[in-house]
Amino acid sequence: MLLIYICIVVIARFVYFPLHHVDGGIDTLKIGFSETMSDMVSFIPFYFLFDRYDGWIINIIGNIAMFIPVGIVWPICFRKLDNIKKTLIAGISFILFIELSQLLCLERHTDVDDVILNTSGVLIGACIVFAIRKLKKQLIFQKC
After folding, report:
1. C-beta atoms surrounding 25 within 10 Å
2. Which residues of the chain have pLDDT under 50?
3. For FRET with 135, which of 34, 45, 67, 112 sits at 20 to 30 Å CA-CA?
4. Distance, CA of 97 to CA of 57 (rounded, Å)
5. Measured in whole angstroms, how far is the alpha carbon of residue 121 from the centre of its chain?
6. 76 in a domain, yes or no?
7. Which domain, by its residues, includes 99?
8. How far apart are CA 32 and CA 144, in angstroms?
């Protein structure tokens, strides 16, 4: 369970708090609503990522990499997540919670790109876990 808590804390750090430092430290979380919803939400896939963001390569890699541990750790810790589909559904639910909760945070942006990239990370992690499990089963059957 400690691994799950670590995943949540690390993800929360990068999702809710800016990466740049303010006065030598991490800036505080600002709760509130923007005056226009279009400033806070992007439903057009990959529009915001390429057209309005300079660090898009780091954003893609970071969003995928940040959720690979979720795809690995959750099926190990939760027995009911016994296949890729269940793990993916749990991961998407967690991702949607995060994205919707960002609507309450000023200076944060809810974006369909994040859902797509984060889900890709969960899928990669889940594929790793279930491939290893499948290999273990095959090795056990070969020994018998």
Report:
1. 7
2. none
3. 67
4. 24
5. 7
6. yes
7. 48-144
8. 61
